[in-house]
Amino acid sequence: MKRWLSLSLAIGLGTMALLSGCASQTPAKIRIGEVTRSLFYAPQYVALSKGFFKDAGLDVELTTTSGGDKTMTALLSDGIDVALVGAETSIYVNQQGAQDPVINFAQLTNTDGTFLVSRNKVDNFSWDQLKGKVFLGQRKGGMPQMAGEFVLKKHSIDPHKDLNLIQNIEFQNIATAFASGTGEYVQLFEPTASQMEKEGIGHVIASFGKESGSVPYTDYMTKKSYLEKNKESIQKFTSAIYKAQQWVATHTPKETAEAITPFFPNIDAAILESSVKRYLEQGSFAADPILKEDSWNNLQAIMESAGELKQRADYAKLVDTSFAKAATEGR
Q: For a surface tag, which of 22, 112, 119, 253 has the fewest beta carbons within 10 Å of its beta carbon?
């Protein structure tokens, strides 16, 4: 009888241990809301396609939330756990006196991602050639428009006085509007800019990313309360992003283009490759997820120039680099 009880107890304990082990291996779910589907976010798609999140024990669900306001609303209402959006949105939330501030914990892009596209071929371009022209701009208060205005002002152009500036077209419709004949110049992301060139609709003549300098253009952020309750998952997430950033940095544009193709099924392979190459050459993909204070300050200088910043936001309050630093150190 004792022997039978001992055997039963051993089997029972073994079963419990097995079940416990299975439970501990259940992937932690993280819901990401990306502000738009953009090749600019190539490392994120590499992390998904190469299984880096899965390898880290995460079940990542990606949703395109289409717009900064919608993305932040989804985050604040718990519709998503993590937002991939411009760092300026966390500052806007802070300016509104949020009790549960939104914290930037990992940087994905390191420059503005837009290019100046001209309807006509331009030889020997100079920025003053834009004066008096119809310019199809971006949404007021968003990073593309603010970075664009910052660059224009650097070249002594007042975008609201020296240009015929159009800003009443939704982000997702800007390229279509330009293709339909609206505007002489437009500010576009890749791969749309290259597609315009291929179709003979426009010509890339300058980079706003090169002109505006290092800036935390797109970051991963979450509410402080979520961050404090899910530190282990956020660390795994950040480490997976860093792994993807390193992968992109050490592989050819063609290899990266192939890895992200499932996320851009309607884009020509050659266009994907050339777009990745263009972003790599100007340092648009952040080499690591650490959001540096000088970049944060440059962001706020751009916001101040656009008249969108009430007062400077405290880097120490809205940025937590502990997860990014641990990722780069292999912790």
A: 22
> Which pLDDT tens digit goes with each residue over 94-130?
988 888 999 999 999 999 999 999 999 998 999 999 9
- Alpha-carbon distance 157 to 164, whole Å? 12
The residue extents of the domains of the chain are: 28-111+215-328, 114-212
- What confidence tier does 4 reach under pLDDT thresholds 50, 70, 90? very low
CATH number of the 28-111+215-328 domain? 3.40.190.10
Same fold for the domain at 28-111+215-328 and the one at 114-212? yes
Interatomic CA distance for residues 106 and 92, integer angstroms: 18
What would the DSSP string read from start to end of 13-49? HHHHHHHHHHHHTSPEEEEEEESS--GGGHHHHHHHH
Largest CA distance in the chain: 97
Tell me how far apart the alpha carbons of residues 176 and 197 are, in angstroms, rounded to a whole number. Answer: 14
For the question of whether the overall pTM of this predicted structure is more than 0.85, the answer is yes
Q: Cα–Cα distance between 93 and 70 in angstroms, integer?
A: 13
Residue 264: closest CA among 32, 41, 30, 35 = 41
Chain CA centroid to CA 206, Å: 21
CATH 3.40.190.10 fits 114-212, yes or no: yes
Q: How far is CA 129 from CA 42, 112, 194, 222, 224, in A?
A: 33, 22, 22, 42, 46
Start-to-end C-alpha separation, the chain: 50
CA nearest to 65, candidates 50, 47, 86: 86
Cα separation, 196 vs 95, whole angstroms: 38
CA–CA–CA angle 216, 217, 219 (5° rounding): 70
Q: Which tokens hold the place of 141?
A: 């208060």
Q: Note the pLDDT of residue 98.
A: 83
